[in-house]
Structure formats: structure tokens, C-alpha cells
């Protein structure tokens, strides 16, 4: 059987990979689209919160909280996509690529934060 405390300790440090997302700011200097992918590393910051949740025994409450967090993300996704749609309709010269990457990171981090808050 795996040592749960040891696994949680390592998961906490996986969140440090989020600092690789700072490399994404090179996009504003080079305007190379491939630099935007580095912003997605910010989603690793969610592991700082998820490592604090005890999921050694998944009970009905955890499953219900997970379902509520997924429902929240669905509503948030619709909201963010509608904002991006309105931006693209009203501002013609706006480059939406950074906003799309930010939307992805916001959705992943929001799921981690919502699940953490529901479990507390």
C-alpha cells in the first residue's frame, strides 16, 4: 500500500512547476505564439491546494463536492467564452490568443480553488 503522506508531500511540490508560466511573458516581446503555451504552466499552481485535500477514502461528500466544482466550472466557462465572443465582436483589432490562454488557466485554477473551498 502506498504511503499517502509521502504522496501528498510530493504533490505539494509539483505546484512549483507553475513558476514556469512566467516564461509566457516573452510573448509580449517576441509575439511568437508558441510562447503562449508557457502560460498554461500556471495551472500547476492548483496542486498547492489539491495536495491539502485528503482523498485517501473517497466518500459521498467528496463525490458531491467534485460534482459541484465541475458544475461551477461549466458556468464559468460559458461566462468566459461569452466575454471572449463579445470582445471579438466589438474590438476588431484585438489579438485574442493571450485571452484564450488566460481562460484555460483560469478554468483549471478555478476548479482547484472551488474543490478546495468545498472540502474545507
TrEMBL record:
InterPro entries in UniProt: DUF2178_TM
Keyword DNA-binding: no
Signal peptide: none
Membrane spanning stretches: 12-30, 36-57, 69-90, 96-117
Keyword annotations: Membrane, Transmembrane, Transmembrane helix
One Pfam match: DUF2178
Protein name: PF12676 family protein
Organism, scientific name: Peptoanaerobacter stomatis
Amino acid at each position: 500500500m502506498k504511503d499517502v503522506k509521502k504522496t501528498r508531500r510530493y504533490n505539494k511540490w509539483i505546484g512549483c512547476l507553475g513558476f514556469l508560466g512566467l516564461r509566457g511573458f516573452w510573448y509580449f516581446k517576441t509575439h511568437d505564439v508558441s510562447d503562449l503555451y508557457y502560460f498554461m504552466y500556471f495551472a500547476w499552481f492548483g496542486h498547492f491546494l489539491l495536495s491539502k485535500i485528503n482523498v485517501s477514502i473517497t466518500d459521498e461528500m467528496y463525490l458531491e463536492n467534485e460534482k459541484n466544482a465541475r458544475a461551477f466550472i461549466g458556468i464559468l466557462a460559458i461566462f468566459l467564452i461569452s466575454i471572449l465572443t463579445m470582445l471579438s465582436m466589438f474590438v476588431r483589432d484585438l489579438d485574442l490568443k493571450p485571452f484564450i490562454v488566460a481562460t484555460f488557466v483560469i478554468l483549471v485554477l478555478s476548479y482547484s480553488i472551488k474543490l478546495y473551498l468545498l472540502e474545507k
